[in-house]
Amino acid sequence: MKTQRAGLVLLLMLCISVQLMAQQKSPNPIFTADSLASGNYKDVLNSFFQLGLERLTSPDKEIRFKGTPFAVMAKLDTTLLIDKNYRNYTPLRNLNYAVGLRLDSSFRFNGFTSGITFAIINKRDETVSKAFLKTVENNGRVQQLYAANTAAGKEISKIQDMNVKGALLLELDAFVNQGTSFKSLSPELKEIILKAADEPLRQELNEKGDYNFTDTAKAIYSQLKEDLQKKVLWTVGVTDTTYKDQFVFSNLVLHTQFLKGLTRSPETTHDWELDIQSGLQFVDDTLKSGRDLKRMLFNLETGMNVVFKAKTTKRSYLEIKFSGSYYRNFAQLYAEEERDRLSLNATVRLRVFPEVWVPLEFRYDPENGNFLGFINIRANFTALGSIAKQL
Amino acid sequence: MAKSKKAASAKASPKKGAKAKSSPGKTPVSRSASPAAPAGNLSTEALVAVKTAVSQNVSIDFTFTGGIGQATAILFRNGVLINMQSISETGSIVFSDVQSGDVVTINGVCTGTATVKLSTPTIPANPKNFPNGLMMANFLIK
After folding, report:
1. How do the domains of chain B map onto residue ranges?
2. Which strand ranges, in their side-by-side order, compose the sheet holding B80-87?
3. Closest residue of A to B111, CA-based?
4. Cα angle at A126 between A140 and B130, to 5 degrees?
5. Cα–Cα nearest to A249, from A287, A297, A217, A281
6. pLDDT beyond 70 at A229
7. For residues A318 and A350, is the Cβ–Cβ distance under 8 A?
8. What is the end-to-end Cα distance of chain B in Å, rounded?
9. Cβ pair B95, B57 in contact under 8 A
10. Does residue A22 carry a pLDDT above 70?
11. Distance of CA A342 to the CA centre of its chain
12. Is residue B47 pLDDT above 80, yes or no?
C-alpha cells in the first residue's frame, strides 16, 4: 500500500512537471482516483467515488468529485449493501454525478462544473447479475472444484476419530481457501483429495505438485468476470460549467458513450473493444453581447481499444486505442474557423502498478498538421469491500 | 454434485423467508433411538439419519453484501449424504438432527462478499468470510 502511495505521489509530481510535446496547446495532465474498481468501463461509469485534478499545468485547472447517490446512502446505511437491498438500488448505482471547481493559473476560483451520467444499458455489472452466477456455477472447471470439495468433505466425514477429522478439515480449509499448495499437504489428505477429484483435476494434481486450489478458483472466477466486461455499456449524460462571477451556464454538453468488447475467445492475450462517443456542446457566442449558449458544436469519436494481457494472469498491462474524431460547428464561424474538422487520435495506456495507469494521449489534425499530446494518471482503489467489512 | 442422493430422514426447514431448496426426497421423518452405526456398516441404521439425545438443529446463516450470491450446503454423516439445501439470497438454512462429528460442506459463489455462520461450534471455526468468487468450505460439527 505504501509503495502504491509513493508511486502515486511520484506520478503526480511527474504529471505536474512533465510538459509533453504540443504545438498549439499546453499539455492536459489529469490525475484521477477511482475509489471503487479497476476495469476499462470504470473510466466511463464509476461505481462509487472518483476524485480528479485536471489540467494541472494549464491555466484552467479543475478539482472534480464524482460519485453515485447510492455510494453516499451506503456510507450512511451499510445495510443497503446486503444483497436484497443492493439489487433494488441498481438504477441508482448506474447514476453518476460530478461536481467541481475550476481554478485559474493562480488557483483562484474560476467557476463551477457539474454533471450527471446514467447508464442506459450496463451489462457489465456482475454484482447484480443472476446470469453471471449461473455462468459461474455451470462452468465445467468450477463444477470440478465443487465436486472435489464435496467429495473430500464426504470422505473425511467417514473417519471416526474426531481429532483426526478436525485436523484434516483444517488442512483442507488451508488448501481450499488459504493458498496452501498440494505438495505441502499431509499424505493422508493428498490421498483423500486424489480420490475425491475428477479425472481431469486428478491428472492436474499429479502433474503439478505445487497445484494451488485457491489460486485456481480465483483465476477461473476472474476469467469469467473478465468475459462479462466485454458486454455492452451505453451511457448518456450532461455536463455544465458556470461563469466565475455569476451562477449562469457558460458551457453545456450533452454526451453519450457506447462500449462493447469484440473478442470472444477467453484464451486470447489481447482483447478488442469498440468505443463510440459523441457530444453536443452549447457555448457562449462571444461575437454577441451578453451571455448565451447559442454556439452549437458537435463531435463524434469512433475508436478501437486493444487490450494486451499477461498470458497466465490475464491482467492487462498495456492498452492502445486508435480513434478518429469528427467535429462540426453549427454556429456562425469566427475568423479562420472551419465548419468541419477531423483528427486522428491514439492513446497508449501503460500499467505501472497493479492499480495505477498512465495513459498518454496523442491527437493529430491531418489538415493543419497539428500534433497534440496529453498525459493522464488514473488510480483505482477498491473501497466497496472495505465498507462491506464494516457490516 | 450428488443431488440424487436423498436425505433419508432429516428435517429440513429454511427460515427467514430465504429461498432455500431442499434436496428431492420423501417427507423427512426423524427417528429416535439407537446411535449411528460405524462407518463401513451398510445396515439400514448406517444409511439413516437417526435422532439421538445429542441431535440438534443447526442453522447456517448466509449473508451476501455488496453483490449477490448463491450457495449449497450438504450434510454428511459417516460418508452418507443426509441433507442438502440451496440458498440464493441472504437467509438461513436449517438442518435438523445434526450430530457431533457430522460434516457440513458448502459450495457457492458470491459477487460481493459473503459470511457463513453456523449456530454451533465447528472446525474450522465459524463465522467464515469469503471475498468475491467461489465459496467452498467444510465444517466439522463439534
Report:
1. 20-141
2. B20-22, B80-87, B69-77, B103-110, B133-141, B122-123
3. A127
4. 75
5. A281
6. yes
7. yes
8. 25
9. yes
10. no
11. 28
12. no
A127, A160, A217 member nearest B133 (Cβ): A217
- Contact call for B64 and A391, based on CB within 8 A: no
Q: What was the pLDDT predicted at B64? A: 95
Calculate the CA dihedral of residues B118, B120, B125, B129 and round it to 10 degrees: 20
pLDDT for residue B45 is more than 80: no
The gap from C-alpha A277 to its chain's centroid, in whole angstroms, comes to: 17
Greater model confidence, A384 or B104:
B104
Cα angle value B92/A386/A213 (rounded, 5°):
65
Cβ A154–B100 below 8 Å, yes or no?
Answer: no
Q: What angle do CA A374, A383, A386 make, to 5 degrees?
A: 160
Is the confidence metric ipTM above 0.90 for this complex?
no
What stretch of H or E contains B128? strand B128-130
Distance (Å, rounded) from C-alpha B139 to C-alpha B101?
10
Residues of chain B in contact with residue A385, where contact means CB-CB under 8 angstroms, are 66, 112-113, 131
Mean pLDDT across the stretch A279-296? 84
Q: Are B52 and B32 in contact (CB under 8 A)?
A: yes
**Of A36, A32, A22, A35, residue with least CA distance to A56:** A32
Name the H helices within chain A: 2-17, 69-76, 83-88, 90-93, 130-138, 140-157, 162-177, 187-196, 199-207, 213-228, 384-389
Beta bridge partners of B133: B110
Q: Convert the pLDDT of each residue in A28-58 to its tens digit.
A: 222 222 322 333 444 455 555 555 556 555 5
Confidence of residue A78 (pLDDT cuts 50, 70, 90): confident
**Which residues on adjacent β-strands are paired with residue A101?**
A63, A112
Average pLDDT, chain A: 77
Structural domain spans, chain A: 20-124+229-389, 134-223
Residue A39 C-alpha from the chain's centroid: 3
| Residue A133: per-residue pLDDT | 94
Dihedral-angle region of residue B89 (phi above 0 means left; psi in -120 to 50 means alpha; beta otherwise):
beta
Contact residues on chain B for A169, CB-CB shorter than 8 A:
103, 123-124, 138-140
For residue B73, give the nearest of B133, B28, B138, B127 by alpha carbon: B138
In CATH, the architecture of A20-124+229-389 is Beta Barrel (2.40)
Which one-letter DSSP state was computed for residue A78?
G
Phi-psi sector, B76: left (phi>0), alpha (psi -120 to 50), beta: beta
Contact A70, A81 (CB under 8 A): no
